[in-house]
Design brief:
Blueprint lengths: L1 H25 L7 H15 L10 H17 L4 H8 L15 H13 L1
Helix pairs in contact: 1-3, 2-3
Length: 116
């Protein structure tokens, strides 16, 4: 049972980190509307599209990350590439709304995510 609790907590932490990273990539606040997400996606896609950045070797990767971020936030589709990317970041900005250093904080985050 303790192992299951730990794995559950880890999944929630990974999901939260991925969502924070996606918000950072698109430049939106958590809980942004679908319209705001769509506008942010279009703006970022135009800015980082490989055709607009021929001298940037990472342009294709950035473009795919933008797509992953949009799909996660707008369509709730997880993206392994996004999870791999955030492992290489210095850190995802912390949110003071939930204290995720304990299971109660994870529960509160989960409750709001699924039950609004």
């Amino acid at each position: 049972m303790i192992k299951d609790d730990y794995e559950f907590g880890e999944r929630i932490t990974r999901d939260l980190q991925a969502r924070r990273a996606a918000c950072k990539i698109l430049g939106v606040q958590e809980g942004a509307s679908k319209e705001a997400l769509k506008k942010a996606y279009r703006r970022a896609a135009l800015k980082y599209h490989p055709d607009h950045n021929p001298n940037d070797s990472d342009a294709h990767k950035k473009f795919l990350l933008i797509k992953c971020a949009y799909e996660l936030l707008a369509e709730d589709k997880p993206c392994d590439m996004l999870l791999e990317e955030i492992k290489s970041w210095e850190g995802v900005p912390e949110d003071d709304k939930y204290k995720l250093d304990n299971l109660w904080g994870h529960f509160l985050w989960w409750r709001e995510k699924f039950f609004g």
